[in-house]
């Protein structure tokens, strides 16, 4: 309890600091200054849907194309995310209004969609696809005005403004399908302070769109590619009939507004899309509960241990010493090497590699250096860091393997470098084949796959070997007691010492500390939201490490008291018990939050979820294992062994 009270003010101070740094902008990204009538390029990123989880590139649909299509050179993270950034024919000039302009204007003739194109567009609309555009690296957002009905008086209803990423491709109404063929762009600029004799410069600070569906007959066009929008609500929407050819116009308008938002704060609109109050409350609740529970567990186990050690070290009564019971009884077997020491040390090495990578990524992201404005930076950084952290994973695996009386260090190093990454690559390759079959931009291109393999075998593998070599040569961990020649018989265990019961018991506390954050992470991954609450995530990660360590120590203490010395593998499995709850939560999220019905999207969801659960089990299992190993060495060093 005292420990919890000491931790509480520090955790609240850390929370306040994180709140201040949440809007911190990524360093090293220079703003672009525009003059009056300078072109502001509108680019397309991709089409996405939370129902199919399959992104497509913009020109997979029959949109109007510029005279020359140019794709942006992309980093590794953008390719893995399915981004294919390409230019569009929208002509937007800084602070220059456009009432209505026709795209694909060839002597004012409408665009004709073939039956096949119409069917494809209709299919994408029914699958709830969103179109993602960017202007000056700012993603387009659709404004949603929600009215909260707190008062019965309509005049007093509060208007809550939220933003949706991208814009809907179209909508369905009474079994009819309609396409959003007119886009009203609303761009906000911030006027920079200049000296009197200099020309004003502008910076783009927000990019909104109001999509509309306007029937061909209601649009009036002229030979200069201008058009006139129908007034009021007289127009009908543009229907897409998938059984025949459809004629329509693609049009757009541009409206500029001045804004007080400065360039450094322009991403705040996109990063504060959800209710932060709930988040704050849940995080503080997790902090308080976990630290109080940690304090109580620490008090119980420390008091019990002190009594145990005091009793074991008494030499007054020889008969008491002969009839000793509890964890001291197994001192001659507690450090007996387990079965399959090479696989255990390899998995723990990969866990250390993951731990170092996640810690650095979250910390760097918390400082604002992996902002969403740097597209794909988070995934690129994570991939490269995992490769370079191989030296630490190899070192820890090599030293542990030697401690467990292993001799084949070269085979052990190869196992460490290929076991976990091989499983990840294998699952991703199989899923990628299905995505290829759907012609989705989410499919990793063959050259990128070759580049990833070169990184694995050219960077990670040599570094793991290097770390393993030095770890294996280093002095093994010093165990305080000798191991007996003949293994001790293990008494029959109670039902609650069952491995699966242990997983259920050990997993609930770490999962309880992080499940709110898990909801936000799942929303970011599966519902195309931005995730930028890395300050909260860093705090949750610390709570996770503390709770995993303490639960692991409690579980290994109970096991040794039951005179079962086979704790190596059991502790590794049980400490990762929260991964089981992550799997259960993922199934709950799939059933209740997502509207996925097709086979391939379901396969993708559960394939990637399996990778997440495996990685989380490795991470928490490694944290728990090393905490338990330190604890076991400490307690056996504290008692007198004859």
From TrEMBL:
Q: Does the keyword Transport apply?
A: no
Primary subcellular site in the record, as a coarse category: Golgi
Signal sequence region? 1-23
Query: Which superkingdom, per the lineage?
Result: Eukaryota
Tell me where in or outside the cell this protein is found.
Golgi apparatus; Membrane
- What Pfam families does the record point to? EMP70
Tell me which GO cellular component terms the UniProt record holds.
Answer: Golgi apparatus; membrane
Tell me a GO biological process for this protein.
protein localization to membrane
Q: Per its record, how is this protein called by name?
A: Transmembrane 9 superfamily member
**Species:** Heterocephalus glaber
For this protein's source organism, the top of the classification is: Eukaryota, Metazoa, Chordata, Craniata, Vertebrata
